[in-house]
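User:
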Amino acid sequence: MSTGLDESGIRGYPYIMSRIGRALYLVGLALAVVLPLRAWVAEPITIASASMEPTLRVGSLMILDKWSLSGRRPRRGEIVSFRSPIEAEDLVKRVIAVPGDTVEIRDKRVIVNDQPLTEPYAVHDRPNERLEGDDLGPLTVPAASYFVLGDNRDESKDSSVWKSSSGERVYFTPASSLQGVVRNLPWIL
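Assistant: Predicted structure:
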């Protein structure tokens, strides 16, 4: 029986190479599992701005669930991550209106399909100030598009205020830019 030791009692080259080979195999196996999971199922994200406060605090660690939207459309009220339609950045916002809905904002109150939306999550830091986006529409959400707002309405750059580089208003985010549903980590309540 070979112990991997040479005559001097020191482990030899074959033993060391088998240990390195085993370690490389385990690293490769881990990458083969983790990378596809991260690309197509879920990945950790950190909330970078105050636009979703108080629901999601700056620095909160969340899970971006990519799998959920592979078989269905986002629902009203869900928090999603998407590529901004006006800048090269990822955003996290709440879906307010889906394709075919009519959305309007009057005096900071959101109305969807002629019904005021009940929004216990919405916050207005400057309730007495008239801001761009406090009055909008009515607008009909086109096919394959979504109207999204941050919960911290007066501090959020979203469908109510977006403008292209040429100054043209951009009201909707395309479905093709959606990345997934933002969820709490299971062990954080």
